[in-house]
Design goal:
mainly alpha; about 0% strand
Length: about 210
């Protein structure tokens, strides 16, 4: 039962409660840095590291933190891991760090992280808390990569920095602008939720037939 519960907590972050396409959280980095797949992957991995680490610590220290100061305490915990992520990116991935710019430090105020700590990590044990954070982080990263892939291919004619088309290709420059980010996000959200609703309907019909 515990294994099934932990597996469920991980899986729900990918589809059922995807932080981007379903909950529409963390829109600042989602719209700002997803001009390429690499940027989306880098931001997603940094956010996931902070989310998992802060969720684990939040779950462990919850009995020690008075409710009156829990928000400042969790904010300090998050800021600590954001600093670590920022320093690692600057030391080992300078071009990526420069491309992401100020949006790595802004992970501190990403509502996905504080939301999961408050809503789940502090109300569950370390195992489920980490599983939930991993799922949410994976869902967030996947969404950023898909968004970045669409914008990079259409806006630059490349994928992971590799040119896909010949000289005759005319990129849609709007795709690398903020307007393109909003447009792409809206279309992907519509597709994602339509597929999600369709699969849910199919599942209900299958269960009805099985009961009959």
């Amino acid at each position: 039962m515990a294994t099934r519960s932990i597996t469920y907590e991980f899986a729900k972050g990918l589809i059922k409660n995807n932080p981007v396409f379903v909950q529409v959280l963390g829109m600042c980095p989602v719209l700002a840095v997803t001009t390429s797949v690499v940027n989306g992957l880098g931001m997603g991995m940094a956010t996931s590291f902070v989310l998992v680490s802060a969720a684990l610590i939040g779950s462990l220290i919850k009995p020690l933190v008075p409710s009156e100061v829990r928000i400042p305490v969790y904010a300090v915990v998050i800021a600590t891991f954001v600093t670590i992520a920022d320093l690692v990116l600057r030391a080992f991935f300078p071009p990526l760090s420069a491309s992401l710019g100020p949006y790595v430090p802004l992970i501190v105020v990403n509502c996905v992280i504080m939301g999961r700590i408050e809503a789940f990590a502090t109300r569950n044990g370390p195992g489920p808390a980490v599983s939930d954070a991993l799922g949410m982080g994976a869902g967030f990263t996947a969404a950023l990569m898909v968004l970045g892939a669409v914008r990079e291919v259409l806006g630059s004619g490349a994928f992971f920095g590799i040119e896909l088309f010949g000289e005759g290709f005319t990129p849609l420059l709007v795709m690398i602008l903020p307007a393109g980010a909003f447009l792409t996000l809206g279309v992907l959200m519509a597709i994602f939720n339509a597929l999600k609703e369709g699969s849910h309907t199919v599942l209900i019909k299958a269960e009805s037939k099985a009961e009959a």
